[in-house]
Amino acid sequence: MAGTVSEPTRGDSPWKTHDVFNQVPPLEGLDVFAGNLPLLEATEREGAGWVRERASVLGRLVGGAPQLEWGRLANENKPVLRTFDRYGHRIDEVEFHPAWHQLMRMGVEHELHSLPWTSTEPAPHAARAALYMTAMQAEAGFACPITMTFAVVPALRAQPELAAEWEPLVTSTSYDPRLIPASEKGSAIAGMAMTEKQGGSDVRANTTVAHPLNGGGAGGEYELLGHKWFCSAPMSDLFLVLAQTEEGLSCFLLPRVLPDGSRNAFHIQRLKDKLGNHSNASSEIELHGAWARMVGEPGRGVPTIIEMVGHTRLDCVIGSAAGMRSGLLNALHHTAHRSAFGKHLIDQPLMRNVLADLCVESEATTALAMRLARAYDEAHADAEAGEDASDAQLFKRLATAVGKYWSCKRAPNHAFECLECHGGAGYVEESGMPRLYREAPLASIWEGSGNVMSLDVLRALTRSPRSLEVFLGEVELAAGADGRLDARVGELKEQFADPVTLETRARRVVESMALCLQGSLLVRHGDPAVADAFCASRLGGDGGLEYGTLPAGVDFEAILARSRPER
Ligand SMILES: Cc1cc2nc3c(=O)[nH]c(=O)nc-3n(C[C@H](O)[C@H](O)[C@H](O)COP(=O)(O)OP(=O)(O)OC[C@H]3O[C@@H](n4cnc5c(N)ncnc54)[C@H](O)[C@@H]3O)c2cc1C
Questions:
Q1: CA Rg, the chain, in Å?
Q2: What backbone torsions phi and psi does residue 86 show, to the nearest 5 degrees?
Q3: Tens digit of pLDDT for each residue in 219-238?
Q4: Which residue's alpha carbon is at the smallest distance from atom 16 of ligand 1?
Q5: Does 237 contact ligand 1 (Cβ within 6 A)?
Q6: Hey, how many other C-beta atoms are within 10 angstroms of the C-beta on 114?
Q7: By three-state DSSP, how is residue 46 classified?
């Protein structure tokens, strides 16, 4: 009755103030692969259905409580640089929390770093993408060294004798973090060091120099002198490094430990104090006459290392899809259990719009990532057959740049909206959402920031004008199925009419390319409700600038049902 105050509840404690209710149960005990219907469907579609069981084992690991703890612990206990030992000897070691090593071990044992280079099953890149997208939902920091170890292989192959020595080590499925010669432990983790203080995007500005020791040349020994301003995962066993030679910028393989067990002159100056990505160490290093061997031809450093860069860009797309799925899963779970104004949040019409919009974005990014991974399988098969400008290779080259630009750009705001679905609880570290949010911008900066990726699309088009034809050919496989997609593809073609202003308009053009490709994939293969919402809001102009602005007529129930964890 109004105005009356009830008797205080007297339980065990006379000071009991309240019961805890309307809070959300922990999200654990899931199979985050099998529960991810868009990924499950895409894995089958892109030819990697054989990996289902394996991905489910990983999905249950990642969806279980202990693994979620690894991510939290590895971030709350940041890596620490130990420059010297207690006696003053330089050691240049970074100490990680045991949870970091657990994550790394999980990644290596599940072959996230190696599958396409070792498997004889069909579509190993697509299979690996399914595994990677599943694993990275636990924590994204360890993705960096796992990705670099995966991506180093095609670059190493430019120097067959180095590939013969190192490929068995970087594809080994045992993880050993000790800083001893890789040959002794039988495994290796790889990193890369390109960025210097004066330039990261424009690596031609590199000032690190390499002096030949025995005549030099491809495969030859060199001594490196200089610095690198960003060098992540500095405890890795080998690095690909760019340095200047008389012939120009060249690529080198630099081991952290020399074959005789002594440490290479790779000195860690300090660790970066980063926005996010706290579990992983990123360092500034100096090379004081470090021993290295040239990979590829002298003066061909960029074309050599670009093989590694391309594969890391693929992972930026897959990783962005993983981050979106992780945020979405938490948002769907929270809103399904939290009530406000008499209903579960997920049943409130406006919240349904926000969640459905987030589902659409997550599905579109997943479809794009998985299609891109298959392009790597197809391009690789063509290369094995001796082709070097096949349709699959041209599509892979262009779609990697388009996909990296767009999926990485869409990730941070997606993470923010998933966070906001939790209300204040999402702003609190314990929810895990701040970690996801802080991580989200990194993939966009790393390995080619937004503008650089847009310009890379133009570069690919200039080098191989036929690649636009191939790209549009893929998009137009959906021609006639949705008028909004057809109209947008027509507009996209017109955007290439004025080459003079193309660079200024590059972001807009690349955005249109990405949206048309995603639209085509969803129209052809996706759920009709998801495809309809995508075409209406992203292609047909019936949507706003923020999430939660889908038109009222879309099938919210069908879209949400596909993505809900308790499906
Ligand atoms: C956490 C983290 C880890 C990293 N790890 C590594 C690592 O392990 N190894 C490594 O080598 N590097 C690493 N990097 C470096 C990263 O790859 C570079 O920061 C990135 O390539 C950009 O280079 P930059 O910082 O020098 O920026 P800049 O090159 O100065 O670019 C600044 C801005 O200008 C834009 N821009 C550049 N050129 C143009 C142009 N022509 N037109 C329009 N806009 C342009 C860029 O898009 C960017 O937004 C890491 C970075 C981070 C944040």
A1: 25
A2: -65, -20
A3: 999 999 999 999 999 999 99
A4: 446
A5: no
A6: 21
A7: coil
Q: How far apart are CA 384 and CA 220, in angstroms?
A: 27
Q: Looking at per-residue confidence, does 28 or 483 come out higher?
A: 483
Tokens 């063509």: give the residue.
382
Residue 455 contacts by C-beta under 8 Å, 6 or more apart in sequence?
A: 503, 506
Whether the CB of 271 sits within 6 Å of ligand 1: no
**Helix H or strand E encompassing 114:** none
Q: Which residues of 467-492 are buried (b: 16+ CB within 10 A; e: fewer)?
A: bbebbbebbeebeeebebbbebbeeb
Q: Is residue 198 within 6 Å of ligand 1 at its C-beta?
A: no
The C-alpha atoms of residue 487 and residue 231 are separated, in whole angstroms, by 45
Beta strands, E only, 261-375: 266-271, 282-295, 339-340, 343-344
Instruction: Tell which residue, 481, 469, 467, 471, has the closest CA to residue 525.
Output: 481
Kindly report the pTM of this predicted structure. Answer: 0.97
Question: Which atom of ligand 1 is closest in space to residue 233's alpha carbon?
Answer: 8
Q: In this model, does residue 28 exceed pLDDT 90?
A: no
Q: What does the pLDDT look like over 287-298, one tens digit per residue?
A: 999 999 999 999
The three-state secondary structure class of 146 is: helix
How many Å apart are CA 363 and CA 350, to the nearest integer?
Answer: 20
Q: Is the Cα torsion angle 272, 403, 173, 67 positive or negative in sign? A: positive
Span from the CA of 451 to the centroid of ligand 1 (angstroms): 10
CA distance 88 to 119: 46
Counting ligand 1 atoms within 8 A of each CB, the residue from 78, 152, 195, 444 with the most, and so the one to mutate, is: 195
Label each residue of 201-237 as H, E or C: CCHHHCCCEEEECCCCCCCCEEEEEEEEEEEECCCCC
pLDDT (0 to 100) of residue 7: 56
Residue 546 has which token pair? 């923020």
What's the burial of 57, exposed, middle or buried (CB within 10 Å: 0-12/13-18/19+)? middle
